[in-house]
Design a protein that fits this description.
MlaB-like_STAS; alpha/beta; Transcription Regulator spoIIAA; about 30% helix
């Protein structure tokens, strides 16, 4: 990484930008990025954010629906998770929805909100949702949020 040595006189373009003004566009109509910001812009450039989530389901003769989730349950996959699970709830069977998160790699708060939304929707359709297994990433979220029990799941106590 190269840094430009700061001159005694401030660059007028940098001064305008730091004062809330804008720099003039280049010949293509794009606004220029100061050299110091180019490295940051390259680092923050859009990447493929399509995270993978796999949802498999098994419907038991008793009417219980078992759903196994594999991958990442986060901001990027929460809406897919919600739509897929709610699509499986048709209200004909009633019973319960068992959520198996033991194969989950990552979960953030948006993922937990989606799980909560699934549970609420399931309840309105006559299902009772509960978590039957969870990966350690879910335990971390529950501990950080000080939630001792969530949908019947109690994370294991962490040794002191």
């Amino acid at each position: 990484m190269r840094f430009r040595q700061r001159s005694a006189a401030p660059d007028p373009g940098m001064l305008r930008a730091s004062q809330g003004g804008t720099m003039p566009p280049d010949s293509h109509g794009a606004y220029q990025i100061r050299e110091a910001c180019r490295t940051i812009a390259a680092f923050a450039s859009p990447v493929d954010t399509a995270t993978l989530i796999t949802i498999s389901d098994t419907r038991h003769p008793s009417g219980v629906l078992t759903v196994t989730v594999t991958g990442d349950l986060d901001f990027g996959t929460a809406s897919t998770f919600y739509r897929q699970i709610c699509g499986l709830l048709d209200g004909r069977y009633g019973g319960g929805v068992e959520l198996d998160f033991s194969r989950l790699n990552f979960c953030d708060l948006a993922g937990w909100r989606a799980v909560h939304a699934v549970a609420e929707t399931a309840a309105t359709m006559g299902y009772q949702a509960r978590i039957t297994a969870a990966a350690s990433c879910l335990d971390v979220v529950l501990r950080l949020c000080h939630i001792p029990v969530f949908l019947g799941y109690r994370p294991p106590q962490k040794a002191l």
